[in-house]
Amino acid sequence: MALEPMNLLIVNAGSSSLKLRVLSDDDEVLDEQNVSDWDGSPAALDKLDADAVVHRVVHGGERFDRAVLVDDEVEAAIEELVSLAPLHQPQALELIRHTRSGGLPVIACFDTAFHRSIPDSAATYALPGRWRDRFGLRKYGFHGLSHAYVARRVPELLDREVPRLVSAHLGAGASLCAIAEGRSVDTTMGFTPLDGLVMATRSGSVDPGLLLWLQTSGGLGADEIGDALEHESGLLGLSGKSGDLRGVLAGFEAGDDACRLAYEVYVHRLAGEIARMAAALNGLDALAFTGGVGEHSASLRAAVTRQLAWLGILIDAEANESATPVINAPGNDIAVSIVESREDLTMAAQARALLE
Q1: Hey, what domains does the chain have and what are their CATH numbers?
Q2: Distance between alpha carbon 47 and the CA centroid of its chain, in Å?
Q3: Which of 31, 37, 49, 111 is catalytic?
């Protein structure tokens, strides 16, 4: 039975931002609102009309491997995962509750779901089995809605199949995904969104022994360490000035040594992790940059790809500066693309498939 045409309100709640879009049945943007300094209020949702509401939820844990209609049981399960994504999960949960009160169908799409295809060899931590079983300790991965869109979009841009693709989602949060034949096989974020790359205010990967030492010998409590890892680390912690890459680059160009170090650490980690993702794929056919930083920083793309020239990644300087969709050097075997982040299209497709 065919589904009646339906407009979807796509709700993407970040830690301090809110992106809202109303999409028609053929994915035309009918209305949108972006709140950059969001205070957590759900009021903006009430100004947009739709037939169903679709929410991005960062952590789906072991239970959610696809989009679901939200009922009381699903809502309770999402709440149980708040401690694993404290910057994002509470905001999404509050908005879900608000929209459920309006009587429309409410759908949750999970950032972790795309990564459920990661093999055990890449997803399993070398920890005692009793811990892994009791607490569900494994690599979950995040930004899955964005990486899934990249997996779909890059073959369209290149007009060919892309068996081995690395997707680089670079924004305030950042992660890489190794995508084989359209499926995630490894990623840089892990049990929580703190793992992996250096981010705006998040540390990325840190020696676990260092964190234990801070507690046992440094006298710092778990809450203090957790808050610093989430809010005071990354580019902000390195530069002492800004968690925004543009601010770090401006400081670097002005001769600020701390900003120079912050930028160099960011590029070093990013290039190294791209190489690791390529290793997980046994080679590379394409690299894609997406997210605010990935889409808009030509200097970062140039710096990262220079460090990866040994891997065969070469870009055209003019195409990179003008941010054309395909920026690899002519004739180069490895394609390099810039992809507009459209998590909303992934969410809409998942929601319609569920409702049908």
Answers
A1: 8-139+346-355 (3.30.420.40), 160-338 (3.30.420.40)
A2: 27
A3: 111
